[in-house]
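Predict the holo structure. Ligand: glycine.
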Amino acid sequence: MKKVARISVNLKERSYDIFIGFNQLRSLGNFIKKLDLGNHAVIITNPKIKKLYQSKITPGLKKNNNQTTYIEIPDSEKSKSLNCLKSAIGKIVKIDIKTRLFIIALGGGVVGDLGGFIAAVYKRGIPYIQIPTSLLAQVDSSIGGKVAVDLPQGKNLLGAFYQPKMVFCDSSFLQTLNLRQLKTGLAEVIKYGIIADKQLFEFLENNYHKVFKLEKDALNYIINQSAAIKARVVSEDERETKGIRTILNYGHTIGHAIEAACGYEADYTHGEAISIGMVCAAEIAHHLNLCSLKTLGRIESMISIAGLPIHIKNVPLAKIMKTYLHDKKFIRGKNRFVLPTNIGKVEVHENIPENLIKKVVSERIKNK
Ligand code: GLY
């Protein structure tokens, strides 16, 4: 078997490859060389990740005649800010003399979003690559080209569609994640199983312990399957104009409402919030006779055995419903939900009765 698997995102002149391997960081320089992106890599990362991987990345790039400059941003959602953007661009301008710059976003979702946004806007766009270091970023946020920073008024308000030139996933990075970060990524993997890949879901049901033990083959399998689904969906609907990308929002309508109701504090990680959202959406589907009790039960127990929440704690119903009403998934005043009909199959439904949503969410609130 090849050491590095390749999945393509097919978008004509904006096409790129996702490479997935285990302990392959030393070969990064060769992959970058083939792309001919420039001669100076500006690596946006956070201090912890830089300490872990600088010594593996820099020599490979140097060998291929690339200079490197590391720009560190704090390891926090707050780094997706105009301040960090301004400060990073200030540093980039200083080194941008007689060189061809490109950006490497080395980190999780925050670094990927900020690094990609800098690449999109600096001089009207310079090339960038994504090296995602968290499971969530490897299976989701590094692929697809949505890049953004937050404004005080809301998340991702300043953004662009700007595709990377490559995504390089090294599953050995996951060895340095804490369990909660691993689980938050696993929630997205479970999502892929439910929306499009029955085999992936069954693999997780039978092998979740191998994922928790960080077994190489299990990690590579779940990253490959997930990234392939994301790549296929993005290839078919890059800008979310055809309704195909919508299926990626399974669990996100109520999930986002829970996150927003908590003010995006640490109460719920993204994966935890969408886990509850996925169970709620499955319950709504069951109430509407779209999915069987057995399917609902499988979804609920998969999420539960992955150590993810299926109940809401300490968030009032009124707060969730208020933030839910502000959700962007309302199209012309109608709500829109991605509902599972079976494992591996979903349908998009609009105008779900509000009473039903309220009933399902309120039954999930357990304060003890
Ligand atoms: N950057 C994540 C996406 O495009 O979906």
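Residues 141, 144-146 surround glycine (CB under 6 Å). The chain has two domains: 5-176, 179-366.
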